[in-house]
Amino acid sequence: MAASTDTEHRDHRHDDHRPHHYHHHYGRPVLQRPPQQQHHYAYKTVVKKQRPSAGGKKKSTGNRRRRLTHVLAGIVLGLFVGYTFGGSYDRLRLYAGCGNGGAGGGSDAGRSGVLRPLQSSRARVDEDDSGGAIPAAGGGGAGGPPESLLFVGVMTANRYLATRAAAVHSTWARRVPGRVMFYSSETSVRPPGAADLPLVRLPTVDDSYPPQKKSFLMLQHMWDNYGSAYEWFMRADDDVYVRPDRLAALLRSVDSRKPVFIGQAGRGNQEEFGLLSLEYDENFCMGGPGVIMSRETLARVVPHIKHCLKNLFTTHEDVELGRCVQKFAGVSCTWSYEMQTILYHNSSGRDAFTGNLKQKEVHRAITLHPVKQHSHMYRIHNYMKGLELQEIQQKKILLHRDVRSMMNQLNSAHPRPSNEFRLTGDSKQLFSSRPGSPNYLGDPDLLGLPPGLNKYRPRKVADVIKWDFISKAWYSDTDANPRRRIDSYTKEGLDDVVREVMDLINKFSKQRGRVIDFKEIFYGYQRVNPLYGVDYMLDMLLMYKKYRGKKMTVPVRRHAYLQQQFTGFEVREVLDGSEVKLKTQQQDAEAYDNDDDDAAGSPSRDIADNGMVRVEGPPAKRRSDSQAKTVHFVLPLFNRLATFARFVDNYESVCLANDERVTLTVVPYGKATADGAAAAVAQLAARHPDARLTVLPDAGGPFARAAALHAGAVHAAGPPPDDLLFFVDVDMLWTAATVDRVRLNTVRGRTVYFPIVYSEYDPVVVYGRAAGSPNHFLVNQDTGYWRQYGFGIVSAYATDLAAAGGLDTSIRGWGNEDVDLYEKFVRSRTATAVSVFRAADPDLVHVYHPVECDAGLPEPKARMCANTRFETYGNVDQFANIIYRNREAVYEFAARRLLNGSTAATRPPPPPPLPVSVSAPRPRV
Predict the structure, then answer these.
(1) CB of 778 within 8 A of CB of 739?
(2) Environment class of 708 (CB within 10 Å of its CB; exposed 0-12, middle 13-18, buried 19+)
(3) Interatomic CA distance for residues 156 and 188, integer angstroms
(4) pTM above the 0.85 mark?
(5) Are 875 and 784 contacting, i.e. CB atoms less than 8 angstroms apart?
(6) Tell me, what's the pLDDT at 894?
(7) 502 — phi, psi (to 5°)?
């Protein structure tokens, strides 16, 4: 008995108004519905009843013949099609339509057995007006098939193509597991420098607002050209940042064969309430943070786009899109509070994401909206890449811990050092490669230890690392100010630790029906171990919220013992702002093994030899190309001939004896100074005939450091590239490392170098003698201080100095000319302006000398001179010890001052001389 079949959709439109629930399984967001809300599209079989007839047997025989004829015709047709297309069956797609609104759309959607062309599995390219091919964004790896998970359509406008669209295309769009296209008006022009921007010009569409027509026609184009090639389709704006890895994890956990409409649900603000033509249980997906549709949803909506465009009730594009999806796809936007954090919308407007990015909302989100300033799109992208690097480093540490744990178990019978460990007796050593080799896996003894506060075991009392106390303030006995406010960098580190701890606590909170929020830190302890990391002990106030079962909100306290593990120490060498590319890794390893003499004094080797860190990569050697720059020393001089002799000795031993490419220009003031400097330089020139040494004639007039530096710079600077100037003082001592830093940190057209000088304290206070320091390069808090507010020592190219405005030669005397020059570089805002680089240089020392302040100095300079003199005496601890050792004398001095003060207060002062017209003295108040 023959039976004809038909298909019929059950209407589950009302069920879709129920909220969707999201759950996290091991960090992967999973979209699922409760069992009573899942859709089951049943197909009902309709059997047509046939009337009995006398010729039933004859009719049955005719039906068999008809079916046999159909089978033979189908075979012949199949052979013909196979022969015609040469076996390329991927060019055809046999699609059975499922009634109106089926996954084919169009006029053929209701007919079964329709042959439709399938998109080729190879990546498609769009052609611009000139016929040039535009490569697809995203896609698979090199040589592999393109990924087909997600197609993203970015709505933009012609005026944003060079800024926002280019920023999106250069950042997150390149990592989408699929394809990204940019949709704009029909008159849009691809900006210069963005030839690979995949742009689609929608016909009959302009850039007017609201972009309702642009949005709907974009969906039409997406389905017509890519509907069968991708599982998910996303409508995005050009001011949204997307994290493709997290979005892919979310979408791969959801069945794209079902109608799904993902976004941040909205119903309008208070002013729009009742004006959006929404029913009580209807909503829409807010367009800003992004709207995602499954293939099934888009297939149901596209055939009715014209109807939706003709029946607009509001001017809001996302509201009308949600209404159209609700009507023709039968689904509403996801009802979930979690969407507010997954698809995050910042309400700060143009100030959104311009400040600190270390916020829990930024870390949790999949999309961030709005990024109005396109430059911040690159900033957010770099920050997200940094987070990914941190995750990779953490995985590296965990792998090291696993390896060390297995090594300990395998070594239990026959213990051996880690660097001699072998899996089997005849296998290669697991950690045979030395630091600097590309096969070096890291130090398992350093990185493989499990987390704990007892990794470091001091051998003596002096090696004990002290803990700092954290409360509302920061308490430390190792600082000159024991109680101080929490520094910004320390607070940032605490915020990072607390955020990661809370993420760990709430990792499975959804399954447990509760959430724990952080409130504050009652108190804590912190210490920094330079070998292993930063240790924390924190007492935190948390808020426990249970929302499943018996609801409750309870404040709780929790102690956390944490350690931020340090990873390997890496060295990267740069020259003139560009990274130095080493020739081969083998040469680097040989340099590390053989070049012990050159690297013996390097800080990297010193740190490694002391066991503080293991250097990944060979220590940087002094390269010939870094010595190619000539450094022109410019020295103003007024009297101070004995100090100048020490300066000349240091210049000879550091620069001339090592064949450094340097010159010296001395600008003296006063005939006696000029004659003494010329004699000392003549003796130096006799020992080094090839040295370039110059003593300018007496400048005449009162001393002016700005004028002296200007005269020396004009004389010393030659044509580029040999015009690197280094302004110094006669009280300075330096090493070869300082000369190298001057070359490396001063880059023409990019940076000027203002080193932070280490200034010595009074040797009488430090050593109890006036003969000076026995070691001028001993740097600690008791021998001197960092002159952070001094800008007199500077290195810059003559061309950059002139571009910034040069020295103010109208400033007389000593002082203010350095601050003026520093402010000129800081204020410079031209296209060719250079930036200021500041760094402490432990090899550049200002030797102590008594500071004499001229009584004729103006008030600002007199105050600066007095402050400098006070700072050079010693630190607070040293003066406290002096007072303690001489406390009896201090008590006597204080008593005398108090006695004199009280006597002066009780005895009336003598009357001042009065004019004749005044008859009586006026009492002092």
Answers:
(1) no
(2) buried
(3) 10
(4) no
(5) no
(6) 85
(7) -70, -35
